[in-house]
Amino acid sequence: MARTLVIGAAGQLGIEMVLALQAQEGITNVDISDIRVPDNDAVMKSRFLHMDATDEGAVFKTLEEGKYDTVYHLAAMLSATGEKKPIAAWDLNMRSLLNVLEAAKEGWVKRIFWPSSIAVFGPKTTRKSVPQNALLDPTTVYGISKQAGEYWCRYYHEKYGVDVRSVRYPGLIGHRSLPGGGTTDYAVEIYHVANSRKCYTCFLKADTALPMMYMDDAVRGTLELMAAPAEHIRVRTSYNLSAMNFAPSEIAESIRQHMPDFEIEYVPDERQAIALTWPESVSDDAARADWGWKPRILLPEMTHIMLEAIADQSPEVLN
Ligand code: AKB
Questions:
Q1: How far, in Å, CA of 114 to CA of 100, rounded?
Q2: Is the CB–ligand 1 distance for residue 76 below 6 Å?
Q3: I need a surface site. Which of 60, 169, 262, 300 has the fewest CB within 10 A?
Q4: 177 C-alpha vs ligand 1 centroid, how far in Å?
């Protein structure tokens, strides 16, 4: 059986990827690592390795001994936290990627998944339906690290034949895990606050539209990308991926379809400036053509799923 390691297993995407990989590969074939223990009993059924991904020796030892076929390297500091700790963000996001790429160059892992983001785009990028090969113009440390990471991935692929694959995720929204430190996090928080029947104070303005995606689509798309034959993967930087685009006022309106009394107020903070540099929508034609990407869940259905799932959860989930 194929062996898989998820680095950054305690994060928003990490928890979801581990659950999907456990279902696909079998729990004992999926190892997980992070610097903090994932707060999820099902995730913790996999073997947990306490590993700092910026520690070259630790990454090399884990990958050499683990004989993994695939590594999902998801550890990162996101856009808003990255602006508060720029050097730490750069160190984490870059050093950890280079450690994993170097390990793959040594032949200790066959395939790598590494996430990029819409944060690689910026004010000089087209705002709508951003094409695959659009100008990258990141203005955040997070975005700069993702842009550099994309080119490192392509470099290791072209120079050393490393099979590393990547997508530029939009904001990801799911109910099994909470995000932290991102600019798109409001679109998760809003459902939890709506569930507690309180007024949501949104840190973005009402009309700030951004690309977004329901988590199950993101996870499925990632697994499809990793399952595609290598010769189909023509983009070795990172694929644009699109599902839906909405502004805070639109997600609020979709919540009101279920909770007519739901209230939202807008108190923009420093994340507004970051959001304004990102596009409103991206074109994912290349992902569709090369490996058959297609989103399934749009805003009305996502709102329905999120509100139902969160209503069944304990209130402590949003602490
Ligand atoms: C963030 O908001 O920083 C992330 C992202 C879009 O990559 N969710």
A1: 10
A2: no
A3: 300
A4: 15
